[in-house]
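TICKET #2291
ISSUE: user wants both folds in one file
ATTACHMENT 1:
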Amino acid sequence: MRPLVADIDLDALRHNYHLACRCAPQSRSVAVIKADAYGHGAVACAKALEDQAPAFAVACIEEALTLRQGGITQPIVLLEGIFSADELALVDAHGFWIAVHTQWQVDALLAATPRQPIPVWLKVDSGMHRLGFAIEEAASLWRQLSEASSVASLHLMSHFASADTRDNRYFNLQMTRLQTLASELAAPLCLANSPATLAWPVAHGDWNRPGVMLYGSDPLEVANEVTQQLQPVMTLRSEIIALREIEEGEPVGYSGRWRAPRRSRIAVVACGYGDGYDRHAQDGTPVLVNGQRCAIAGKVSMDMLTVDVTDVPNATIGSEVILWGRASSGEVLPVDEVARHCDTISYTLLTGVLPRVPRRYHGRSV
């Protein structure tokens, strides 16, 4: 079999969720597992957390139904709400919670007659300028929803645009707007994403929404003592499938972008952009070969990439290659570091691992 596999450490997932809870002990933490749990497998990850997480969050009803079909019984929040009024029947039947961020969703909810009132998160735009009602509209909508027979519990929800950065001016502006509104309404809050959970206790509300941190990625611009405790959940693991010696000056790969600065030993690895590895990876992007740091040499191909292993004399066909994650020897190559070499973020690498890469689950929940 082709040696490329995505190893998923469910114990690390549980560790990271527990860390999120320790960051905000007065809050409840909804585990965000949208986009197939950021590429890790939503049902498997939910199963691993079902004895810890009081609720899960996904983007849309299709993702929520997949979890129900997988046996998940906890509340599931639809972070983008419904996309048509017809979905409210499924929301009612499966006990989903919904965000509302636009007027037609409110109108549909007010016109509905569900068997049980639906828990609602009213999303306000405090400065992200993506989804949500204007702050000035929120108070009247809150009161309207509070009186509706179709609505159960009601929370105030927003999203931070810059909680991951050292410059806290815009974060503080959003936070001030939200605190003023919440005080006026006596509203429970759901505000903190991963960076706010890790770095901004003032944003910890009745509910927090940790996402990418659950998978071991550090969302902060500068790591702190808490993010250093995160454990990688996905290890993208492959092997060397060919080796060759080339002379100084010889090119490697399409367009000959990389040329050997000396007589070099080049390893061919079974992984490429057809598997979801980023084609924009620069020469010098790190990989681990037998636990030792090496660098990509040449453009990533569809099914393969090439690595300079001149300084790894024990590299041979079949040697372990870690594209990101934890090596068998214990060394860790953070997905965030790889992402920087690809001029992207960890989210795109993790969610971009394609279905032809098998997921192999490990841990107490398997």
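ATTACHMENT 2:
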Amino acid sequence: MSNPPQSHQLSRFIVASGMTNLADGVAVVVWAWIASLLSRDPFLIALMPVALRLPWFLFALPAGIVTDRTDRRCLILAMDMVRAIAFTTAALVVWMSQPLAPVTGDGTAEPTLFAALLGCALLVGTAEVFRDNAAQTMLPAIVPHDQLERANGRLWSVELVGNALLGPAIGAFLIGWVIWLPFALNAVTFALAVTLMLSLQGPFKPRRNDTPNWRKELGQGLAFLRDAPLLRLLAITTGAWNLLHQMVVIALVLHVQENLGLAAWGFGLILAAGAVGGILGGFVAERVVRWMGPGAAAQWMTLASAVAFAAIPLAPNGFVLALVLAAFEFTGLIWNTVSVSYRQRAIPDALLGRVNSVYRLLAWGMMPIGLLLSGVVVNAATVVMARDLALAMPFMVAAVGASLLTLFVWRPLGHGFALVSN
């Protein structure tokens, strides 16, 4: 058991992460929903979350180098301040654009506002890349390695409360009441997170003896991942899964609006139900992984995602859809516990930021592709079928993709974790 100072440090770190994830949860609904108020074109709507995810492809590698060169706590503080400024700007531009012009099917009636919000989303996403990489590499400096599963479970449970339970519900309520208010709330929330992170104390800068050289540093990170077969497999699997997951996430917006006929608050509650499943997964993940073993847990959780993707368009109402998402997030949290805990344990601290960034380039860099692919699939399907069926096609494509992914990685995952345990 960790000593009291470690316990206090971990608690403050978790609360600060919970605050930032509360803001992220509010934004989950707000970014996509406000895009749907400015246009009904699935491709244009997808551009808003693309702006949030594209920085993972552009800046993941630089973020790893910066993370291993600097004090990780200071980097987190700086990035949270950047996000507070970006959300303040978004609140102001939305407020100044009131009332909004009527939504159009093609293009947008508010091109200046749409472009300004895309810029704010891009800034928020860029800061998130640096912040999240620093936060994930900072945790092993706070708790012993044999407690990483428990610490990650607690951290993700708190993050899910904000990111997918409270945040979406609050965001849906606020955007239905005052459209600029969710952005203003997020600015305040990030400012509070900065205050909490300021209270952390300790050595959070990696110890290094070499002279900084970005090419050499990047090469070391790439070489470590190249020579670690299980880490490489986890990165590729996560990347493919994230591509499919993002197809589903953006497709849900129009599916819920048009096929199920629900308003913003209904969408928020459905996402909140998914969070409940994830929170439960966070509480039991350590026991599930211990019972099944990390290899079997990774295998079965990958298969479960394929089943969930196929079940989403078959859900006849919001209540059943909420149950599907709850089961989906439960299994997803267990997968994350296996993947991230192994990564934190297997990578040396001095390399953690760089290897983590290469890993996340593969894992998160696929997200923008999935978002854009969702819009392309819907627009292409609309040519040959009714719109309600076309809106369901991204879920079916994701289900087929996840099934194929499970077939390809089932045996390598089991074999890889078996070698590690032996």
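RESOLUTION: both attachments delivered.
EXTRA DETAIL ON ATTACHMENT 2: The chain has 14 helices and no strands.
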